[in-house]
Amino acid sequence: MPKNEEAAGTAGFLLEMGMLKRAKRSGWWIAGVKDPETIAEHSFRTGVIGAVLAMMEGADPAKVALLCLFHDTQETRIGDIPHIGRRYLQAASNERVTADQVSAAHPAVKAGVQQVVNEYETGDSLEVIVAHDADKLECLLQAVEYREQGCANVQPWIDSSLATLKTASAQALAEAALCMDSIQWQQTYLA
């Protein structure tokens, strides 16, 4: 493929990723959240949480952040299917969607993105475990914030996220977050 076509294919992938800034996380609508976070907002904080958890667990923070950054990129094509919806739908695998998304991209981008998504979906390394914990911990933190804003129906998200955490660091952070409000962090600096 000529280089200008590779650049166009890669630019197309990057433009498609911009959709994640507009696409809402639909599971929160079930809980009654009127204006839920976007997929991009979720992925950003998941990446930060992943890097922090990796530091605490002795994993590679850069690798975990990368896994987290790409973990929901497929949702530009299949949407954010809530867990209840998965009972009734059979979506293509994330690996297959990713392969389509990067099919016209630069070969190094194509191979790199596919490798990251495949590892997140099928790997069992400490980095993958931490990345999955970051995803669940982010969901728990978001539920805590929505609960604080008056949405009382988020407890199932808190409970299910807490139950799936595997690392001691993620469990400890979750327990600490459950005892805090969303702006308590600033109290140290105002005193």
Automatic annotation (TrEMBL):
<dbReference type="InterPro" id="IPR003607">
    <property type="entry name" value="HD/PDEase_dom"/>
</dbReference>
<keyword id="KW-0378">Hydrolase</keyword>
<feature type="domain" description="HD/PDEase">
    <location>
        <begin position="35"/>
        <end position="149"/>
    </location>
</feature>
<protein>
    <recommendedName>
        <fullName>5'-deoxynucleotidase</fullName>
        <ecNumber>3.1.3.89</ecNumber>
    </recommendedName>
</protein>
<dbReference type="InterPro" id="IPR006674">
    <property type="entry name" value="HD_domain"/>
</dbReference>
<dbReference type="GO" id="GO:0046872">
    <property type="term" value="F:metal ion binding"/>
</dbReference>
<dbReference type="Pfam" id="PF13023">
    <property type="entry name" value="HD_3"/>
</dbReference>
<dbReference type="InterPro" id="IPR039356">
    <property type="entry name" value="YfbR/HDDC2"/>
</dbReference>
<dbReference type="GO" id="GO:0005737">
    <property type="term" value="C:cytoplasm"/>
</dbReference>
<comment type="subunit">
    <text>Homodimer.</text>
</comment>
<keyword id="KW-0479">Metal-binding</keyword>
<dbReference type="GO" id="GO:0002953">
    <property type="term" value="F:5'-deoxynucleotidase activity"/>
</dbReference>
